[in-house]
Amino acid sequence: MMSFERLYKDGHEEVIFFSDPSCNLKAIVAIHNTTLGPALGGTRMWPYASEEEAINDVLRLSKGMTYKAAVSGLNLGGGKAVIIGDPEKDKSEALFRSYGRFLESLNGRYITAEDVNIGVQDIEHVFTETGNVCGVAKIHGGSGNPSPYTAKGVFRGIEAACMKVYGDRSPKGKTVALQGAGSVGRYLAKFLDEAGAKVVVCDINERNIQLLKEAVPAVEVVGVNDIYDVDCDIYAPCALGATVNDDTIDRLKCKIVAGAANNQLAEDRHGEILRQKGILYAPDYLINAGGLMNVSIEFEGWSDSKSSRMVDTIYDTTLKIFAISDEQDIPVNKAADVLAESRIESIRNINGKYLGNLGHRFPGRKTRN
Ligand code: NAD
């Protein structure tokens, strides 16, 4: 269970348990690191089998957010929250408003957003009680759907990988095996198609395949288990994590792995195996950070051009990580961690700890009412 030894090990600053029996609220907020700014990360609702499972999830996810924000050049720390409950049965206005009041008590040290099983409607209730929330509707000054920006960032990552492998940024003439025709996959397919790449797609959801075909008629569809065997240049996982694993890695015929899914490598060692096989891996938590970049500017006033400009930086940062990987002779996934950690360390040295005052960059905003 929770112990200081455990928090010390991964460097978590703070873990807070919120309980409100009146609405059956059981929430855990983990603030991993606030050196760069307030901790930003979504709230996930899940019927965890045990509290231990919920704690493991929130600790792991919050640490991941620190790295993602740091490597992306954002002035944000890493945090995440989980609500223990069944999203089908346990959601209520009272639960989310109670949760929002607890968040307000953190005085901006943690800013939340949507995550698995938490939708815009739930976030609206949270927003009634605290301004320390993003991913709210455009009508309330929010940034709307993050998926187009996530897809654009993944496309920039693909361009960087193409530059490194082929000496030409454009994926024109390349074949991309796209796993997942969901929100991000659909936009990514459009970017690829417009750039002159051929897209081969799979999805377990026939409706999403149809939607993609309407948007990009030239796509070729393959079965969900055939995607790893596609004769392609780029494998783009945009469905679920851990698809680069012991069972799939020898089937991949690509030169590049670059997609939106989180935690694409089943284990860290798969990064090294990809390297040995001569397959370039574009670090997932950087190239899928477009959505995070997009919400991060809600506090200063969101605009499409501002968001796009930030997302475009993913191209240069990806190249920088490839260079670190070469210079230090380490796999790309490790090189991304090196860049994230060195940024946190250098800013820690000039800045000290984030003090819980939103300051000029994050002036906070009023609640919805
Ligand atoms: P989504 O749920 O809209 O789409 C995922 C798609 O994958 C769905 O169409 C689903 O049917 C399909 N799928 C599920 N299992 C599959 C399988 N075994 N084989 C093939 N297809 C399968 O999700 P999304 O928003 O498009 O996100 C895609 C991935 O990117 C997710 O892993 C998500 O965590 C990650 N991500 C998304 C964002 C974002 O802004 N949406 C940001 C960062 C990371």
TrEMBL record:
<keyword id="KW-0560">Oxidoreductase</keyword>
<dbReference type="GO" id="GO:0050049">
    <property type="term" value="F:L-leucine dehydrogenase activity"/>
</dbReference>
<dbReference type="GO" id="GO:0006520">
    <property type="term" value="P:amino acid metabolic process"/>
</dbReference>
<dbReference type="Pfam" id="PF02812">
    <property type="entry name" value="ELFV_dehydrog_N"/>
</dbReference>
<feature type="domain" description="Glutamate/phenylalanine/leucine/valine/L-tryptophan dehydrogenase C-terminal">
    <location>
        <begin position="144"/>
        <end position="352"/>
    </location>
</feature>
<dbReference type="InterPro" id="IPR046346">
    <property type="entry name" value="Aminoacid_DH-like_N_sf"/>
</dbReference>
<feature type="active site" description="Proton donor/acceptor">
    <location>
        <position position="80"/>
    </location>
</feature>
<dbReference type="InterPro" id="IPR036291">
    <property type="entry name" value="NAD(P)-bd_dom_sf"/>
</dbReference>
<keyword id="KW-0547">Nucleotide-binding</keyword>
<dbReference type="InterPro" id="IPR006096">
    <property type="entry name" value="Glu/Leu/Phe/Val/Trp_DH_C"/>
</dbReference>
<dbReference type="InterPro" id="IPR016211">
    <property type="entry name" value="Glu/Phe/Leu/Val/Trp_DH_bac/arc"/>
</dbReference>
<dbReference type="InterPro" id="IPR006095">
    <property type="entry name" value="Glu/Leu/Phe/Val/Trp_DH"/>
</dbReference>
<protein>
    <submittedName>
        <fullName>Leucine dehydrogenase</fullName>
        <ecNumber>1.4.1.9</ecNumber>
    </submittedName>
</protein>
<dbReference type="InterPro" id="IPR033524">
    <property type="entry name" value="Glu/Leu/Phe/Val_DH_AS"/>
</dbReference>
<keyword id="KW-0520">NAD</keyword>
<dbReference type="GO" id="GO:0000166">
    <property type="term" value="F:nucleotide binding"/>
</dbReference>
<feature type="binding site">
    <location>
        <begin position="180"/>
        <end position="185"/>
    </location>
    <ligand>
        <name>NAD(+)</name>
    </ligand>
</feature>
<dbReference type="InterPro" id="IPR006097">
    <property type="entry name" value="Glu/Leu/Phe/Val/Trp_DH_dimer"/>
</dbReference>
<dbReference type="Pfam" id="PF00208">
    <property type="entry name" value="ELFV_dehydrog"/>
</dbReference>
<comment type="similarity">
    <text>Belongs to the Glu/Leu/Phe/Val dehydrogenases family.</text>
</comment>
